[in-house]
């Protein structure tokens, strides 16, 4: 019996559309055909378990072979198989309407939509025509007394279907899909190319996939097992398989939920460090162990893109546009669930082993802060396990730190002033001046800290942050106490004029202040507001104030009226006073690590002259 007919579709140009529309992703033909073979095999296994198939299962493998000379790729399985009637039902009648309209709708979308046409409309098998000029199906059903079915199509809407007997009949149940590779798809006749595709998409399929005599997949990856079955070594070994050149992970979360959606997977916390250029797209997304993509944006919150690992869910609509993905209820639930599980894991680690958690903070701090900045629900949980570290090396939670400095660092308006350094070594003089007053100083030198500081000021009631070198120590935390100046108003004016003339820089604004005699003779500061805008601009923030980052620095030069050097400058002649004023100013620059080049050379020479003169 041989039958000829037309494939039942509603447009005559379905195959050119498939080939053209999917061209940049044409390697997925192999994923689709192997997945179909796996499905057929699993269905037969299920029937056997239900007692509906009583024959011998035998070896259930999917085999992929390539014959370069004959220009053939063959995908073979020993699954359910199909009768001629089933081929007519499942292969010939493509439920596809409005193909042209669909392509028009999606052609402007991003590249990730290019394989959506297949899965969305049940066209997985027809992806074969992206690389083949002709496709054959040889199939024999598992049912008794059925004939071999042989279907052939050359990429047009015409097909042939017959039931060969004798030596042309298929001996065993199952299906062979034979692709006669087109002239423009030579790359897929290369064994190495096919192996790469199979490794990418089929590495964890639940049925053994054999390619050129070698099984290329693990049928039971660890995310399909229960955590109780696994050891730490299993998790770290799997991580090394996924990311061969990475450092071992810090810790991991094993996900396993079946209601109200299905989701399994393992998320690893890598060592991120303080780098803005962290590598994303390290989470691999699977559907029933078939690799889909490593672009998981929308499936997990953006800050979780820092994690590594695997997510597997049949409930994620993988074959629809990204705009639909964002609105999908299951995706939103998965997104929320993963966020909660990550927060719960961090909270558990913090409570269970605080010392160990503090040791890991340098690696996970950026991740936690990024999450707090980008996800309100995560912030609500993370505020209890986010840490800050002072310049003495001690860690605190946010609430612990407020309690720690509350007694000594409230200003006259009952606002808590948190002092911080971005470079404790370079700002040592300022840190020392603050700690001499009994104040504590935090170390906030991570790349996201300018944004983190801004968030904490919004969230924490009556708390402000001030960089330790943003003002003189007395003004950082203003109290009701006032220090009297030993200079008259006339002397203060003259001193201000002497310094302004000696410095001769329009961006250095001199003011004479009554400070402690123990404080430095000159303190140079960049106002907190200006400094913060510049810090945020450097890390890509600042909002509407980003222009501040491009403005020239405008510093305040606070001259200590009560320091002995002030009297020496005032009592010296004009030349000597100017030289001493410049020397005191340069000391202030040196304390800010701002004295460089020619100015530094002049300072060293001047110091030698003054030492010689004394």
TrEMBL record:
<dbReference type="InterPro" id="IPR037196">
    <property type="entry name" value="HSP90_C"/>
</dbReference>
<dbReference type="InterPro" id="IPR019805">
    <property type="entry name" value="Heat_shock_protein_90_CS"/>
</dbReference>
<dbReference type="InterPro" id="IPR020568">
    <property type="entry name" value="Ribosomal_Su5_D2-typ_SF"/>
</dbReference>
<feature type="domain" description="Histidine kinase/HSP90-like ATPase">
    <location>
        <begin position="25"/>
        <end position="167"/>
    </location>
</feature>
<keyword id="KW-0143">Chaperone</keyword>
<keyword id="KW-0067">ATP-binding</keyword>
<dbReference type="Pfam" id="PF00183">
    <property type="entry name" value="HSP90"/>
</dbReference>
<dbReference type="InterPro" id="IPR020575">
    <property type="entry name" value="Hsp90_N"/>
</dbReference>
<protein>
    <submittedName>
        <fullName>Chaperone protein htpG</fullName>
    </submittedName>
</protein>
<keyword id="KW-0547">Nucleotide-binding</keyword>
<dbReference type="InterPro" id="IPR001404">
    <property type="entry name" value="Hsp90_fam"/>
</dbReference>
<dbReference type="InterPro" id="IPR003594">
    <property type="entry name" value="HATPase_dom"/>
</dbReference>
<comment type="similarity">
    <text>Belongs to the heat shock protein 90 family.</text>
</comment>
<dbReference type="Pfam" id="PF13589">
    <property type="entry name" value="HATPase_c_3"/>
</dbReference>
<dbReference type="InterPro" id="IPR036890">
    <property type="entry name" value="HATPase_C_sf"/>
</dbReference>
């Amino acid at each position: 019996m041989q039958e000829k007919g037309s494939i039942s579709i509603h447009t005559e140009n379905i195959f050119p559309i498939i080939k053209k529309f999917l061209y940049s992703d044409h390697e997925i033909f192999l994923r689709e055909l192997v997945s179909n073979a796996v499905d057929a095999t699993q269905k037969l296994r299920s029937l056997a378990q239900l007692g509906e198939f009583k024959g011998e299962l035998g070896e259930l493998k999917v085999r992929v072979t390539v014959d370069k000379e004959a220009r053939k790729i063959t995908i073979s399985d020993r699954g359910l198989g199909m009768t001629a009637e089933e081929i007519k039902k499942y292969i010939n009648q493509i439920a596809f309407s409005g193909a042209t309209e669909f392509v028009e709708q999606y052609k402007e979308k991003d590249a990730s939509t290019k394989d959506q046409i297949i899965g969305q409309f049940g066209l997985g098998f027809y992806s074969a025509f992206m690389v083949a000029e002709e496709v054959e199906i040889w199939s024999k059903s598992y049912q008794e007394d059925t004939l071999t079915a042989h279907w052939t199509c050359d990429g047009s809407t015409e097909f042939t279907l017959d039931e060969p007997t004798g030596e042309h009949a298929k001996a065993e149940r199952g299906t062979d899909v034979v692709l006669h590779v087109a002239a423009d798809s030579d790359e897929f006749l290369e064994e190495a190319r096919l192996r790469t595709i199979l490794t990418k998409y089929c590495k964890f399929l639940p049925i053994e996939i054999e390619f050129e005599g070698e099984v290329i997949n693990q049928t039971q990856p660890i995310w399909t097992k229960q955590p109780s079955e696994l050891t730490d070594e299993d998790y770290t070994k799997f991580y090394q398989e996924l990311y061969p050149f990475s450092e071992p992970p810090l810790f991991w979360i094993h996900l396993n939920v079946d209601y109200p959606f299905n989701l399994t997977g393992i998320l690893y916390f890598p060592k991120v460090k303080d780098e803005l250029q962290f590598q994303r797209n390290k989470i691999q997304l699977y559907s029933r162990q078939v690799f889909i993509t490593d672009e998981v944006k929308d499936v997990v919150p953006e800050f979780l893109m820092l994690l590594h690992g695997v997510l597997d869910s049949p409930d994620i609509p993988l074959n629809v546009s990204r705009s639909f993905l964002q609105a999908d209820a299951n995706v939103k639930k998965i997104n929320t669930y993963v966020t909660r599980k990550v927060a719960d894991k961090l909270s558990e680690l913090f409570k269970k082993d605080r010392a160990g958690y503090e040791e890991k903070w340098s690696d996970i701090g950026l991740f936690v802060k990024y999450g707090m900045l980008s996800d309100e629900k995560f912030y609500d949980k993370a505020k209890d396990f986010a840490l800050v570290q002072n310049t003495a090396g001690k860690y605190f939670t946010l609430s612990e730190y407020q309690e720690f400095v509350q007694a000594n660092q409230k200003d006259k308006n009952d606002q808590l002033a948190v002092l911080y350094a971005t470079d404790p070594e370079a700002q040592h003089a300022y840190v020392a001046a603050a700690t001499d007053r009994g104040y504590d100083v935090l170390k906030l030198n991570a790349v996201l800290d300018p944004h983190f500081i801004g968030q904490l000021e919004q969230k924490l009631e009556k708390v402000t942050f001030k960089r330790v070198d943003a003002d003189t120590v007395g003004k950082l935390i203003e109290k009701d106490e006032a220090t009297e100046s030993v200079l008259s108003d006339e002397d203060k004016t003259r001193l201000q004029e002497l310094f302004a003339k000696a410095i001769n820089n329009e961006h250095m604004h001199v003011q004479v202040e009554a400070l402690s005699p123990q404080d430095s003779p000159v303190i140079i500061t960049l106002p907190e507001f200006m400094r913060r805008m510049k810090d945020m601009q450097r890390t890509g923030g600042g909002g509407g104030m980003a222009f501040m980052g491009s403005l020239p620095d405008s510093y305040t030069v606070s001259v200590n009226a009560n320091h002995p050097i002030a009297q020496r400058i005032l009592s010296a002649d004009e030349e000597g006073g100017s030289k001493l004023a410049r020397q005191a100013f340069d000391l202030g620059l040196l304390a800010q690590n701002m004295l460089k080049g020619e100015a530094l050379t002049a300072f060293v020479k001047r110091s030698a002259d003054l030492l010689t003169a004394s």
